[in-house]
Amino acid sequence: MTTTTKTYQQLQAELDEVMAWFNNDGQELDVDTAIAQYQKGTELIKQLEVQLKLAENKVTKIKTGA
Question: What is the residue-wise DSSP string for 6-36?
């Protein structure tokens, strides 16, 4: 099984798509699809948070000279 790491920008673009799906100008939303989209969104947020934490750790390491 091959895993590819997405960039922060790719993850953010995917999250933007999920958010746009929910902001569909008042069209009716299918409940099952909404749940799947919500789950996808929360997974993307977790991945974004991991990448931000890694970046924060790198900056801290640079600041401390480690």
Answer: PPHHHHHHHHHHHHHHHTSTT----HHHHHH
CB 51 within 8 A of CB 11: yes
* Residues ≥6 apart with Cβ < 8 Å to 6: 14, 47
* Reported pTM: 0.81
36 within 8 A of 24, measured Cβ to Cβ: no
User: For the chain, which ranges sit under pLDDT 50?
Assistant: none
Q: Which residues contact 51 (CB under 8 A, 6 or more apart)?
A: 8, 11
